[in-house]
Amino acid sequence: MIRIKRAYDEAAPEDGFRVLVERLWPRGVTKERAALDLWLKDVSPSTELRKWFHSHPDKWDEFRERYWRELADKKEDIDFLKKKAEEGTVTFIYSAREREHNAATELKAYIEQQARGQ
Q1: What per-residue confidence (pLDDT) applies to 118?
Q2: Element (H, E) at 6
Q3: pLDDT, the chain, mean
Q4: N- to C-terminal Cα distance for the chain?
Q5: Are 92 and 104 in contact (CB under 8 A)?
């Protein structure tokens, strides 16, 4: 199972394996508070895509398509995350203010689609 949680929310035992899926460390969050098991920068959107989306937040669908194309090149990391989710709960930690439209939600959707074999 994959869950999503903001870096600013308290860590909890039910989070399971906590993975920061951001390229940049969340502002104001200490390593202790983050309580991470892994920081996997490579599954986050590229710097170019992240900056583009910051300038075009109204283009969510295009961001999503571009990000999924980038994820297609991250097979090893995606397979690792799929395997961890099969073993138990994995929580993707993100720092964006937007709770619905962010890279962590799309990473979760992408992995779940891959797991279904689509």
Answers
A1: 52
A2: strand 2-6
A3: 93
A4: 18
A5: yes
